[in-house]
Every structure is written in structure tokens, then in C-alpha cells.
Design goal:
Blueprint: H1 13-32, H2 37-45, H3 56-127, H4 131-141, H5 152-163, H6 175-182, H7 196-219, H8 224-233, H9 240-256, H10 261-270, H11 279-295, H12 300-335, H13 340-343, E1 345-349, E2 359-363, H14 372-385, H15 394-397, H16 402-426, H17 429-447, H18 458-463, H19 468-482, H20 489-505, H21 511-538, H22 546-566, E3 567-568, E4 573-575, E5 581-583, E6 585-586, E7 605-606, H23 610-619, H24 624-627, H25 630-643, H26 649-671, H27 676-681, H28 699-705, H29 712-716, H30 719-736, H31 739-745
Antiparallel strand pairs: 1-2, 3-7, 4-5, 6-7
Helix pairs in contact: 1-3, 3-4, 3-5, 4-6, 5-7, 7-9, 8-10, 11-12, 11-16, 12-16, 12-17, 16-28, 19-20, 20-22, 21-22, 21-23, 22-25
């Protein structure tokens, strides 16, 4: 719209300026018209000079005069056109003025009506008559911006009146009205769907709504919790056009009430999407509360705590559902004999690495990997369009299915890893260390005590490799927890599995850190053997030594991956980040057999005296080769023999013979009606082969950590060629053993390596 000219007092600016401009143009035309009498007379007066040869000065003067006349003529023509256009706009502006006046008068009337209605309702409320207030509340609670509801202008006038009357709303009868304004319907509407006039008032309504909330929480802080729930609730449902204004409003309210962090935290926890909600809702909510953590630093630790806690819950729920599906499959196998070609079953190997701890049979309709690409395309479409599947395949997008839950967890972990790495890159050194410290506390609280998570721990696997300081801190935390006598045994065992798996798999763990960890572990094993081996000779129940077996198994696992980094040519002194020094000595070991590699004393040695410690540990009464996981023991025995570090197969063979005799004796006692419960009370089961950082099957998470991850193929060398031959021998041996012995040994077969 063309801007209107200002009105001068006592007259029209348009009329005065127009007449003066016209007079000026007329004067210019008279002065510079080449056909005017004055110009003609000047030409005739100079006619006698035409036959004379012009001088240089007279010629230059005439050229200048002609140029001046030409420029003056052009300017006069432009002014004339401008004046004509100005005259034409006069009528149009007068028409617009009339229309605007009508709109302004109508708006002024509407404002007066709504103001009077609101003030009357409040006055009647104070007199004890709540009917007008109930009517006002009903109008604000209904559907707005529809033919049946209030228009944006009407809502604007009502809320703007309430802004100045907030002190009168501190009344129990006004509670429904305050809730109606806080949860105003239509405030999240897309402005592009509104008409021109409604869009103008909608912008004002958004501003006045935020102003009302600010005045409300400032004068009555008890309403902050409800306001926080309203804003946080929009994080999972709002679209892009409204998210920014909700964050601006929340930042504004936090500045008004700095002590409101607890109410905001409660709202974030309470409104976190349920684990069965769709992935679009979850990821939208997560991205928004991560943004809140940026401008409300007091809530950063609690926000990351709830994120990690919910990720753990989702991970565990997937594991539980897989176990339920396994049980259903086992029941079906017992009831019916299904032909292998008709069953359409697939075998999903969850871990295909050194410690493949189990395999699961699932039908194709519920497989984690079957049609995985199709599920990702569906979820990508959801994330792009912001809504569910439009093709009617409800069973494909049902969030309660295992595969969709796995995809959702995959997206969640990938988002968290990316967000943390971005934060660490932007933050200062001190702030990064503070954030990392907060994350480690969440790891101890939520992740470490949880049994058999398969994905969420890779969040810490990745971020702990951002810097050497982070890696040192993570290793120190795991070592301290695993070897602390004040911690619970279960917690210590889990910390040891994390330590062994992390040292084996994390590419950021350098040789110094590796040898520091091995030195501390070897020192602990040596002290334990010295202090408690006599106790092992006096008892039959070996379960009291579970921590010893966990530590030894962890050392076996680390040795399998990094034995080459532990073999040195000369004596060296290793000082780790924990300031513990270990000096290597010449290895005193049993020379390997024909299949092993001979090591001559004095020419090669083992860092941290690891070979001597291992050989002594497997030879003690504790007999760790019997109680550690068979898969880990088998692989360690192969590598230790090949490298000449220790010889295990004679002890393993003796354990097999003793196991067969014990199993036969147990079977005869059961046949003789001996109480089986008493028989098994003092029997210890071998350790399970769970290592948290075994390969993850989630595709996005796996891709994000692939450059930080050491796979078994990188270090196995020629061992994989020998596995197929050994597997046949192991299978023959296991067939000869009784069922009771196989149950007590482990839930992992050596053939799964």
C-alpha cells in the first residue's frame, strides 16, 4: 500500500503541494519555452550577428545554452508526469482512507464491547455471580478461528484486557479462565491458513498471549508449573512455524522467574513421550528439550539424565520382547513339527564377532533385520512429512513391534551422539569437562546397573573417544568401580565387563593406556591369589570368588585383542594415566608346543609381566579356565599358545574329564531320589559371555562409531581359518556330555565364535 501523506493542521497537504507544484511547472514552461515571444525577440535581436564568423567564446556559450535548455525541458516533463500521477493517487488514497476508517471504527467498537464484557464478568465474579465469567471461559475454551468460534481479533481484545486485570484473577472462581487462556486453542495454527485481516490480528494475539503469561507467572508464581506444562507439551506436536515462538516464550519466562527450573524439569520428565509412541513424536521432543538445555544450563544435567534413562528403558524393552518371542518360538517347536522349507524362519545372529553370545530364531514377520530397509524408508517418510504412513500398512509402522522399536532406538542414539559431539566442539574446555562429568554420573546411575543393554552404551563408547582426557576419565571410572571393595559384587562385575570390552574395542585407547590398565588388573589378580588361594582349597562353593573370575575373564578378553601390543622386545617402564608404574620382566612361561611360537628368554618379554600372571592364575585352585565363559576361554587358549604366553589345553582337557565324572555322579544321585536342589545349591555356573561393546546391529549407530571401533577381523589374523576345524571337535565333545553338564557350563557354545 502506498504510504499516506500527512495531514497539515488546518488544510490539506495534498492540495497545497499540488497547486504550488503546478504553478512552478507553469513558470518553468513559460521561461524555457523556445516558441515564446521573449525567446523570439531575443533571436531577432541577434539576427545581425548570424553572418559573422563566431568566435571560440561565443560558440562555447551557445553549446552550453542548448544543453541547459535540453536538461531543463527533460526535468519539466518529469515533473509534469509526477504531478499527474500524484493527482491520480489522490482519489485512490481517499478511497483507502475511507475503508481504513471503517475498519478502525469497527475494530474500536469490537474492542470496547469485549473490554466491557471482560470487566463486567470480573466485577460480577467479585460480587459472587460467576455466570458471565463461565460464559467468557466457555468462549475461550472452544474452537477458535472457525466460523463457529471466535476470530483472532476477538480473542486478541479479550486477552489484552485480561493482561491489565491479572491481579483480579487471584480468585478460585477465575481458575478455569486462567487455564483457558494458558491452553488457548488455535494459538499453534499456521498463519498462512488465515485471511489477511485475521493474520494481522493473529500476530498481535501471539504477542499478547506471551505477555499475559509473563504477567501471570510474575504476579502469581504458582501458575508457572501449568504454563511450563503447556509450553513443553507443544514440543512433541508443534510444527516448524510455531516452535521458534514457543522457545522464545520459554526463554522469556525463565528470565522472569529464575527459580522456576524445578517446575520446568518436572514438566519435561512428565511429558516425555512414552516408549511406544511413534518415532516422529519422540525425535521432535528430544530435539526440542536439547535446545532447552542450551539456554537453561541449570537443567542440562537433568535433561540428559532423562534422555539416557528413557533410552535404557527402550533398549531393555527390546531385549525383553526378543526373549518373549524366543519363548513363543520354543513352545511352537515343542507343539508342532514344522518343515524347514515351509516355516520361513531366519536365524539372526545378534553378535557375529568373537563373543557371539547367542542366536535367535524369529519368523520373517518379526525379524529385526528382515525388511529393515523398508522400515527405514517408512520412518524417513514420517520424519519428512510429519505424519504416519499414508499407505495403510499399519502393521509396518506399529511402534510396539520389535523392529520399529529398534529403528526408533537407532535414531535416538544417533541424534544424541551427534548432539553431544556438536556441544563438545562448541563449548569451552571447562564446560566440556563439566558436561562429560555429568554424563558419566548418568552412566553409573542408569547404564551400568542395567543388565544386557545392547545399544545405549555406544553413546558413551563414542563420546569417551572425543579427547584423550575423556578416555582417561572413562577408564579410571570403570577401574575404580570394578576394583573397589565397597561396591556391590554385581556392580563390580558389570564394570569389569565394560572395562574389558572398552579396552578391547575402543580405537582411542593408546598403548600407554592399555598397559596401564593391564598393569593394574595384573596387580589385583596377583594380590588376590596370594591372599585367598588357601580359602579356595578349603571350600567347594566357588561362587564366592565370582569377582576373581570376572577380572581374569576380562584380562583374557583384552589379551585376545591386544596381545601384540603387550609383547615387547626390551624391558620398559609404563606409567599410565593413573600414575601407577609397572616394570616388565622377562617372561617365565611354559614354552608352547609345535603349533605355538617359541620365545627365548632375554630377547622378548611381556609388558606388565602379563604372561606370568596369566600362567599362575590358570594353574591355581581357582581354576578360571573352568568357570570363565567357554567361548572366551577357547579363543584365549588358542592365542596364548600361538604367542607362547600360556598353555591351557591340558587344564581344559582335565576339566572336561572331571566334568563328565561329576555329571554322571549327579545323574546317579538324582536317579536315587536325592534332593536335586541340595545338589545344585553349591554349584556355580560359568560366567556369561556378555561384553557390552560387541558389534551393534543398529545401522545408524554402527555407522557413527565405525571409525572408532576395532572389529575382531582386524586382530584375529589366521585364527578364523582354524575355527571351522576346531568347531567339529567341540561339537563331538559336547554330544558326549550329559544335558545337565551343558546347562551348567554356559549358554554359549564354542561353535558360535
Amino acid at each position: 500500500m502506498r504510504p499516506r501523506p500527512n495531514r497539515a493542521a488546518g488544510g490539506s497537504l495534498h492540495s497545497s503541494s499540488s497547486s504550488s507544484l503546478s504553478n512552478a511547472l507553469k513558470r518553468k514552461r513559460v521561461s524555457y519555452d523556445p516558441l515564446s515571444p521573449s525567446t523570439a525577440s531575443r533571436s531577432s535581436d541577434s539576427g545581425d550577428d548570424l553572418n559573422r564568423l563566431p568566435t571560440l567564446s561565443s560558440s562555447s556559450s551557445s553549446v552550453k545554452d542548448r544543453r541547459k535548455k535540453k536538461v531543463t525541458t527533460i526535468r519539466a516533463n518529469d515533473d509534469a508526469r509526477r504531478c499527474e500521477a500524484f493527482d491520480n493517487d489522490k482519489d485512490e488514497e481517499e478511497t483507502v482512507d475511507k475503508e481504513d476508517n471503517k475498519v478502525l471504527k469497527k475494530d474500536l467498537l469490537a474492542r470496547r464491547i469485549h473490554t466491557a464484557f471482560v470487566l463486567n464478568a470480573l466485577s460480577e465474579m467479585e460480587k459472587g455471580n460467576n455466570e458471565p465469567l463461565i460464559s467468557l471461559t466457555g468462549q475461550l475454551s472452544g474452537e477458535l478461528f472457525t466460523p463457529e468460534g471466535l476470530a483472532p481479533s476477538q480473542v486478541y481484545h479479550t486477552v489484552s484486557t485480561l493482561v491489565g486485570q491479572v491481579d483480579r484473577l487471584d480468585n478460585r472462581a477465575a481458575t478455569p479462565l486462567i487455564n483457558a487462556v494458558i491452553n488457548l486453542n488455535g494459538i499453534d495454527v499456521n498463519p498462512a491458513t488465515l485471511g489477511f485481516s485475521d493474520r494481522r490480528f493473529f500476530s498481535s494475539l501471539v504477542r499478547i498471549h506471551g505477555q499475559f503469561l509473563g504477567v501471570l507467572v510474575s504476579s502469581m508464581p504458582k501458575w508457572y508449573a501449568e504454563v511450563a506444562r503447556r509450553i513443553v507439551g507443544m514440543f512433541s506436536s508443534s510444527k516448524e512455524w510455531s516452535l521458534e515462538r514457543w522457545h522464545v516464550l520459554l526463554r522469556y519466562l525463565v528470565g522472569l522467574v529464575p527459580t522456576s527450573a524445578s517446575a520446568l524439569q518436572n514438566a519435561i520428565v512428565k511429558l516425555f513421550p512414552y516408549k511406544y509412541d511413534d518415532a516422529v513424536t519422540l525425535l521432535r521432543y528430544v530435539s526440542n528439550i536439547l535446545r532447552v538445555a542450551e539456554y537453561v544450563p541449570d537443567l542440562r544435567a537433568s535433561i540428559w539424565g532423562v534422555l539416557i534413562e528413557r533410552a535404557v528403558e527402550l533398549d531393555v524393552d527390546i531385549e525383553n520382547k526378543i526373549e518373549e518371542l524366543e519363548e513363543e518360538e520354543e513352545e511352537e517347536d515343542e507343539d508342532d513339527e514344522i518343515d524347514e522349507e515351509d516355516s520361513h524362519e531366519v536365524k539372526i545372529v545378534i553378535e557375529d564377532d568373537l563373543n557371539s553370545w547367542r542366536s535367535i530364531k524369529l519368523k520373517k514377520s518379526i525379524s529385526l533385520e528382515d525388511r529393515f530397509e523398508e522400515d527405514e524408508e517408512i520412518l524417513d517418510a514420517q520424519l519428512t512429512a510429519g505424519h504416519g504412513n499414508e499407505h495403510g500398512h499399519d502393521h509396518e509402522t506399529d511402534p510396539s513391534t520389535v523392529k520399529n522399536m529398534a529403528i526408533k532406538l537407532d535414531y535416538l542414539i544417533a541424534v544424541l551422539i551427534q548432539s553431544l559431539k556438536t556441544s563438545f566442539n562448541r563449548a569451552t574446555s571447562d564446560d566440556s569437562l563439566l558436561l562429560y562429568s555429568e554424563l558419566l554420573s548418568h552412566f553409573i546411575k542408569y547404564v551400568l546397573p542395567t543388565h544386557r543393554t545392547h545399544a545405549v552404551q555406544f553413546l558413551f563408547f563414542s563420546i569417551s573417544q572425543v579427547s584423550p582426557d575423556f578416555t582417561d576419565a572413562f577408564l579410571a571410572l570403570l577401574l575404580e568401580t570394578a576394583l573397589s571393595p565397597s561396591e556391590m559384587i554385581v556392580q563390580r562385575q558389570m564394570a569389569m565387563t565394560y572395562l574389558a570390552s572398552y579396552v578391547a574395542r575402543a580405537r582411542a585407547v593408546d598403548r600407554t593406556q592399555l598397559r596401564s590398565v593391564v598393569s593394574i588388573v595384573c596387580g589385583w589378580i596377583t594380590r588376590y591369589v596370594n591372599e585367598r588361594e588357601k580359602e579356595a582349597l578349603a571350600v567347594n562353593d566357588m561362587s564366592r570368588f565370582r569377582m576373581f573370575y570376572s577380572v581374569v575373564q576380562g584380562l583374557f578378553y583384552i589379551f585376545c585383542f591386544h596381545h601384540s601390543s603387550l609383547l615387547v622386545d626390551d624391558d620398559v617402564t609404563i606409567t599410565g594415566s593413573s600414575n601407577i608404574t609397572a616394570t616388565t620382566t622377562t617372561a617365565s612361561i611354559v614354552t608352547a608346543g609345535s603349533s605355538g611360537r617359541s620365545i627365548d628368554n632375554g630377547t622378548m618379554s611381556w609388558a606388565c609381566d602379563v604372561s606370568a600372571v596369566l600362567q599362575r592364575a590358570i594353574s591355581t585352585r581357582f581354576n578360571p579356565l573352568k568357570w570363565c565363559n567357554p567361548t572366551v576361554v577357547t579363543m584365549f587358549a588358542k592365542i596364548a599358545q600361538r604367542e607362547g604366553a600360556a598353555y591351557c589345553f591340558s587344564v581344559m582337557e582335565q576339566n572336561r574329564r572331571v566334568g563328565r565324572v561329576a555329571a554322571a555322579a549327579a545323574a546317579s544321585m538324582v536317579t536315587a531320589d536325592v534332593d536335586d536342589h541340595k545338589l545344585k545349591t553349591n554349584m556355580m555356573r560359568p560366567l556369561e559371555g556378555y561384553f557390552p561393546f560387541d558389534p551393534v546391529i543398529l545401522k545408524r549407530t554402527s555407522k557413527m562409531v565405525q571409525h572408532e571401533y576395532i572389529s575382531w577381523d582386524e586382530v584375529s589374523g589366521d585364527l578364523s581359518d582354524d575355527e571351522s576345524e576346531d568347531d567339529d571337535d567341540d561339537d563331538d565333545d559336547s554330544d558326549n556330555e550329559s544335558e545337565s553338564e551343558s546347562e551348567s557350563d554356559s549358554d554359549v557354545d564354542a561353535s558360535e565364535i
